[in-house]
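Batch job 17 of 40 flagged for manual review because the log was empty.
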Amino acid sequence: MATTGTATAKRKPVFVKVEQLKPGTTGHTLTVKVVDSNPVVPVTRKARPGSSMSRPSQPSRIAECLIGDETGCILFTARNEQVDIMKPGETVILRNSRIDMFKGTMRLGVDKWGRIEATEPASFTVKEDNNLSLVEYELINVNDQ
């Protein structure tokens, strides 16, 4: 069975800047610095009566991390083992990240389809006065008139 070179060729990642992120978008690859990381206390959920969950669920570790590049910054939601990578001062590459909306504001996240890689320290300084997570968005339904 012969395979052609184009069938297995991977796309080169297109790196974007923080200021280019928009609500509801996915598939972002960007290089960012971690400015700050704050653990979030998880809310423990009680098992519903009659549910088949007999074993207690493993509590998930979550941290809100302020990340950014020379164009701006945004809050990143790190989950479980991602918390260990997202330490203040680290430079990371986020691959296939997505924008989640939380209480009308943007949060960046990486799910099971994405990846976080530690990389060499970047030379840029984070522009902290352009925090995209402070911009509140409102969903407006447009009716065809």
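Reviewer: the log was empty due to a logging misconfiguration, but the result itself is present. The beta strands are 26-40, 62-69, 72-79, 91-102, 105-109, 115-118. Unflagging and moving on to job 18.
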